[in-house]
TrEMBL record:
It comes from Streptomyces achmelvichensis. This is DUF4236 domain-containing protein.
């Protein structure tokens, strides 16, 4: 059985969050509809949620 740890710390309410987990950390900038994320491994992602259940996400970073 595996155990995982995850903690979300709010830096600026509804705008900037620091996410700490058992495999590293990440920054999230933005709200529920659109946000940008950068993690400790150099990966980046952008996500936008659209009305009607549609969403768009783009991931990039180190390969």
């Amino acid at each position: 059985m595996s155990f995982y740890y995850h903690k979300r710390i709010t830096i600026i309410p509804k705008l900037l969050h620091l996410n700490i987990g058992s495999h590293g950390w990440s920054w999230t900038l933005g709200g529920r509809r659109a946000h940008l994320t950068r993690d400790s491994h150099g990966h980046r992602s952008a996500s936008v949620r659209l009305p009607g259940g549609f969403s768009w996400r783009r991931r990039s970073g180190r390969h």
